[in-house]
């Protein structure tokens, strides 16, 4: 097995204001806008092409967001999955799959089937394996597709939409499923890799046009570019101690945006932020919520 290539990219800051837990960056290719969340603030952040930053306060902790086919967002709040209109400020509850379990919705993305795939994370102390992964529909339907999780994370799809990646950042594994992009059915789960703390607990993920999976190593200050077989091919060393999720964007989808969370891991306090760098790999536009 060949040793991974070490890369130190030319990173630039994207956001000046500090974040608590920056997460869920989503690039809107139609407007050239980057959306993201600050989980515990709680808030949705919008970074416009000219650099203007808008903040939309949320009524409860927000784990992730996705783009809708109209102007709205789909947002995963502690109180359930909602549609949010940034223009009017209105919320519409679709469903609350977690209910009374001591968990909240965490990492989520719109899939090729137009549904919002979102997992929960345990808020028990110590954490338990009561979290789950859900498929949530624009009609308010909810289906549990995986259980026994601690902190569901890392959702992404292959370029043809026929493979879904998923991680658990506490149990430190990355897995893949066969995926039906029409029906949203999963099959043939396979465990691709278990990570050490030094390799980076697998937080948020993204895939590029060539089918490689990019995993934010939140415990190691790095991004891991991983083959479909689960081999780490490249390690991108970042100037942030705790990266949480990568997202492809920019006019040619060759810019990688990375969110991070606040930490004292380096021995001094470091606020969460958003950084970006350009690279040869190309991403794909996000899917949109709705049939």
TrEMBL record:
Its cofactor is Zn(2+). Residues 21-261 form the SMP-30/Gluconolactonase/LRE-like region domain. A divalent metal cation binds at residues 23, 153, 203. Pfam families: SGL (PF08450). InterPro entries: 6-blade_b-propeller_TolB-like, SGL, SMP-30. Binds 1 divalent metal cation per subunit. GO terms for molecular function: calcium ion binding; gluconolactonase activity. GO terms for biological process: L-ascorbic acid biosynthetic process. The active site is at residue 203. SUPFAM superfamilies: Calcium-dependent phosphotriesterase (SSF63829). It comes from the Bacteria. Substrate binds at residues 104, 106. Keywords: Metal-binding, Zinc. Belongs to the SMP-30/CGR1 family. This is Sugar lactone lactonase YvrE.
């Amino acid at each position: 097995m060949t040793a991974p290539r070490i890369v130190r990219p030319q990173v630039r800051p994207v956001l000046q204001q500090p974040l608590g837990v920056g997460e869920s960056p989503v690039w809107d290719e139609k407007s050239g806008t980057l959306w993201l969340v600050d989980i515990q603030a709680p808030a949705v952040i919008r970074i416009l092409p000219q650099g203007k930053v808008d903040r939309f306060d949320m009524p409860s902790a927000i784990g992730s967001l996705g783009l809708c086919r109209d102007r709205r967002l789909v947002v995963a709040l502690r109180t359930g999955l909602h549609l949010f209109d940034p223009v009017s400020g209105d919320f519409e509850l679709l469903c609350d799959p977690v209910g009374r379990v001591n968990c909240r919705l965490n990492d989520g993305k719109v899939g090729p089937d137009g549904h919002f795939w979102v997992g929960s994370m345990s808020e028990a102390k110590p954490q338990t394996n009561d979290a789950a992964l859900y498929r949530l529909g624009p009609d308010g339907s909810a289906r549990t597709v995986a259980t026994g999780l601690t902190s569901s994370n890392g959702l992404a799809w292959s370029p043809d939409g026929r493979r879904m990646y998923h991680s658990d950042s506490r149990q430190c594994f990355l897995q893949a499923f066969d995926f039906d992009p029409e029906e949203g059915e999963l099959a043939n789960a396979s465990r691709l890799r278990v990570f050490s703390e030094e390799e980076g607990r697998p937080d948020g993920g993204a895939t590029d046009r060539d089918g490689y999976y990019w995993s934010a190593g939140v415990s190691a200050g790095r991004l891991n570019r991983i083959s479909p077989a689960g081999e780490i091919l490249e390690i991108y060393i970042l100037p942030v101690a705790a990266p949480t999720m990568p997202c492809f964007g920019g006019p040619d989808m060759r810019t990688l945006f990375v969110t991070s969370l606040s930490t004292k891991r380096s021995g001094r306090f470091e606020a969460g932020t958003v950084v970006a760098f350009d690279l040869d790999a190309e991403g794909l536009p996000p899917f949109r919520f709705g049939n």
